[in-house]
Amino acid sequence: MAGTSKVSRGGYAVYLIPGVVLSVAIIVVPLVMTVYTSFTRWTGVGSPTWIGFDNYTRLFQDANFWASFGHIILLIIAMAVIPTFLGLVLAALLFDYIAKHFSNRWASFFRSGFYLPQVLPVAVTGIVWGWILHPSYGALNKILESIGLGGLAKNWLGDPKYALYSVMGVMIWFQLGYPIVMFMSGLQRINPELYEAADLDGATWWQRFRRITVYMIRPEFYVVLITTTIAALKIFGQVFVLTRGGPSNATLVPSYFAYKNFFEKAQVGYGSAISTVLTVLIIVLAIVFLRLQNRAERG
Amino acid sequence: MTVTAAPAIMTDQEEPPRKAAKRRNPVRFGILTALLILLLLVVAPLLVVAVNAVKSPADYAGGGPLSLPTHLYWDGIVNFWNRVDFGTKLWNSFITSFTVAVLGVLLSILNAYALGIGRVKGRIWFLVFFLVANLLPQEVLVYPLYFLSKEVGIYDNLISIVIIFTVIQAAFGTYLLTSVYTEFPVELLDAAAVDGAGKWRTLWRIVVPVSMPTLGVLFTFFFIWTWNEFFLPLVFLISNDKQTVPVALGVLQGDRLMDATTTSASALIGILPAMLFFLIFQRTLTRGITAGAIK
In a mutagenesis test of the A interface, which of B28, B40, B140, B253 is the best target, namely the one with the most A β-carbons within 10 Å? Predict the structure, then answer.
């Protein structure tokens, strides 16, 4: 090997050993164990009993399971759809309007401000909002009362009618900054001459937004949509801290549903089945997104 | 996914010439005002928390959540700090996040060296594996990890969290760094080979120093991500003196002892370290969020 002027491509495999050994121990083995356990009845002690597809048939008849996935659809709207579209408009506004008519400083200032919620630990955002939305001493109800709208005061997180919408509101607040940062960086790639040409042709801001901005940052658009959608499917921390899936399961989500079965009800087999379904769903969704993305990039 | 490493750098481009006269005043300032109001709404919850964290309970009872504190009252924060032994939680969070960031970057380097520069056989399949590992929800790993960590006696020990997150973060790091190393300048590698440097020396003398900026981004990410993790630490760190900051704060929610001012005090001391990292790492972060995204 030594003495060749070309870099030898052999002998690198040894560098993979630590990574492979650790990945097998921490990812592959547990994954296989969970899938296996999903076909058993197990309380976590003793040995699991093989029961075939019983957990899955039970799962598909379980109203809580369907409810938890129904809630996820609303959370995808709150965590992926709304932040992506709102973020797109805001990013374009900051990049193409504020930076131009005011200064780049202003644009970066807004970008950092909107991004701020993203840097907080999820548990802390849960605490902040849990307090603001608290029915008796929470700031929101106090504010409503002080401006004479006491009638609108609600038990935001404790009333099954409003709990999920409150969580959705919190999640929009939390997510908004991520698309803004992503899109603003994507916009840097756009040749300013395109905008100038559009200006010369007398295009309105909205026309330029639709025809140039949206078109040019499709790659970022797909990345944001896929990562936020997957984040919505995995949501745990905020729900745990804000509502613990309650009241009466109104904010139950798959990950918390699995957690409850694992660690509160000692139904490990059933919890494993929930996690397995969630995993399959995420991977299928990722494949679909990647396909769409590839097609969009070619087309 | 067209993930590449070249972090899209957010350059402050040059100030475009002011097209004055054109669209002036009302619209311009209308839009600016609208954005400022929106920004205020986003930041308001944090401001409300900060204001109430330094209010005495009597002050709060009298003036409500929106009044400014009549005097600065630090006892709420101090009492909460002492009650939950917050110093220990901070240390636990710091030492796990730091160790994970260091080990995670090292592991990513080794993997990416083999996959990106060494192009070992089956590299595509390794990359697919690391990509899928990134997608997995932690719920599908948690119970076996919980069970196994009890078997080997590292349950309720920071070591368990360090090992798990090192591997999880390195899955992302490997993916990102491999695409950087795939485009590593061959001339540099050739020059090292001519000088008689072996693979090990080339890695540490050439590859690592050249890719330092990307490694810095990875380190920052791993640190903050691990700091913010909630689910696995919640499961693995059950005794009080092992908890990390998010877990300690998270499990206190709904506690009877938590009144309005104590809750905001607790939220504030949870926010402060995150804000500190945000300020320290801001430049790396804005550069890094977009890393790994787009070609």
Answer: B140
What does the block give as tokens for B115?
Answer: 């996959």
Q: Which amino acid is present at B43? A: V
Helix, strand, or coil (residue A5): coil
Residue A48: DSSP 8-state = P
> What's the pLDDT tens digit per position in A237-293?
889 888 888 788 899 999 999 999 999 999 999 999 999 999 999 999 989 888 887
Q: Which residues pair with A50 in a beta bridge?
A: A40
Q: Say whether residue A108 is in contact with chain B using an 8 A CB cutoff.
A: yes
**Partner B contacted by A53 (CB < 8 A):** no
From CA B183, how far away is CA B6, in angstroms rounded? 10
The amino acid sitting at B191 is A
Among the listed residues A183, A185, A213, A186, the one whose alpha carbon sits nearest the alpha carbon of residue A198: A213
Name all domains of chain B by residue range, CATH numbers in brackets: 25-78 (no CATH), 86-289 (1.10.3720.10)
Closest CA to B263 of B249, B248, B246, B276: B249
Cβ contacts of B266 on chain A, cutoff 8 Å = 127
Q: How far apart are CA A99 and CA B14, in angstroms?
A: 10
- For residue A50, the distance in angstroms to the closest alpha carbon of chain B comes to 17
Q: Mark yes or no for CB contact B190/A271 under 8 Å.
A: no
Could you count the other beta carbons within 10 Å of the beta carbon of residue B164?
26
CB contact under 8 A, A5 and B35: no
pLDDT(B216) > 50 = yes
Phi and psi dihedrals of A103, rounded to 5? -165, 170
**What's the CA gap between A227 and A286, in Å, rounded?**
9
- Please tell me whether residue A50 adopts helix, strand or coil conformation: strand
Structure tokens at A36: 């296996």
The structural domains of chain A, with segments of one domain joined by +, span 70-251
pTM over 0.90: no
B190/A220 touch (CB, cutoff 8 Å), yes or no: no
State mean pLDDT over A65-75.
Answer: 93
User: What distance in Å separates residue B141's CA from the closest CA in chain A?
Assistant: 5
Q: Beta strand A49-50 with A40-41: parallel, antiparallel or unpaired?
A: antiparallel
Residue A202: strand, helix, or coil: coil
The CA-atom distances, in angstroms, between B123 and each of A7, A196, B70, B204 are: 18, 45, 64, 22
Q: Which amino acid is at B122?
A: G
How close does chain B come to A154, measured CA to CA in Å? 17
Find the helix packing angle between B86-112 and B260-289, rounded to 10°: 20
CATH class of A70-251: mainly alpha
- Tokens, residue A60: 């598909």
Biggest distance spanned by C-alpha atoms of chain B: 78
Please state, in angstroms and as integers, the Cα–Cα distance from residue A151 to each residue in A144, A145, A159, B41, B156, following that order.
8, 8, 15, 22, 47
B97: which 2 tokens?
Answer: 């996040």
Of B16, B135, B275, nearest to A230 by CB-CB distance is: B135
- Residue A34 contacts residue A276 (beta carbons within 8 Å): yes
pLDDT in tens, A135-170: 877 788 888 888 877 778 888 888 888 999 999 999
Taking CB atoms and an 8 Å limit, are A122 and B8 in contact across chains?
no
